[in-house]
Request: fold
Amino acid sequence: MAKTPLFFRDQGEMGDVLAEAKGLVSELKTLKKNADLEKKAIEDYKEKIEETRYLQSIKERLGKKVEVVKNLFAKATKEWLNYREKLKKREKELKMQQEELLRQKKELESKLESRLTKLEYEQKERLNKELKNLSELSNQVNHQLIEINTTKNEIEEILKEDEEIIKEKLLSKEDVLFMRLNYFNLIKERLASNGVTNPLTGQSYSSRDWNITIEKNALTASIVEGLISKKIPICFDIRILVSESKEGFIYKKIGMEITDIVTDFISASTNGLFHSLVLVSPTGWTEGIIEKVKNISDMNNSVYLVDLFERKIFYNEIDKKTKTFAEWFAPISLTQEILELITKLKQNIENGELQFRADKVANRYQIPRKVVVGAFREMEDSGIGEIIDTTEGAKDLIFFVRD
Reply:
């Protein structure tokens, strides 16, 4: 005689438990929506403060009046300080709501634990689905709260930044051009002196096997096999990504807007073909996209983020093949660039040149302003001369050599 399946005491009880789970999901969705709104609000504040902070330096670089911009920045700062106090309370409220919903979720799980064996397969699936939704939503809320805190810290850093540091972060279109040329030349030098081994197949190739194509903001280095049916077992796809300029200057870091580029690259994976995507930013990357890339693990592909401003490279350091090739794409250090420039400037001093203006040195040697300022500071610390800044009437930083 067939046994009657064991359910909850009645379908009503089952419905109540399922309704409770769905209710928690609904509340967590509302909580996530509220966290999204707070995240958007704080990002808007960051955009406003960052724009007015940098716009002031841009106007000064262009020799324009900055009083209106200074007033805008003061207003934006005041608004932020007021909002920051409200945000502290709001963050606390969101966290408390999340903790309460997680407590209810835990109670629900305990309630079900002793009864799950009595449920039909379909009932188990429905409940497990709701519990999974609860966990995913809670993780999303937690992630949003972390991002809110990160953005809050970034705003505080912008407010604290020294004016000269702000100026260093302003890149002209010429700065970006120099950075691109120098980086591509560095990559070409490395390729010309290095053969390569496919980490997936063990097949080796000499430096003569590289096929290199360069476009305006892209360099592709590949190994091509076959004449008729061509195959590309190794490919390095290097792209320079530049954020939008403001009055001819670029300063914004690049962030999650590149997610689709990375996703499309990973989804095009083919067994046995080792491809690397190297995304290069003259202004750097936001913490969110850095963390995302650091956690990418793909059998055939590697993804790197290169920060030309800070001279850093980010990637999944746990992935052996990705770590092996990181040094191929790492930019040379700022210290090395500064030392190379100091050597050139000392040679000029020996030839009788006694003063150097930052913008002219940058143009002469096709290097970013940051390198020039770094060299000036090192030379001043060494007693070679002194820096005259714009507050003393100079159009740009000038380095005077001592007699």
